[in-house]
Amino acid sequence: MRTLLNTLNHLPARDLRQLTKLINNLAQSVERLAVDAEQREVQVKKTEQRDLRKSEKLMLQKLKLQRAIMTRYQAGYSIEHIATVLDYHPKTIARYIRKFQTDLTILKEIDHNVTRRKIELAKGMLKRGDRRDQVIRKLHISGYYVPLNPAA
Question: What is the C-alpha separation between 73 and 76, in angstroms, rounded?
Answer without folding.
Answer: 5
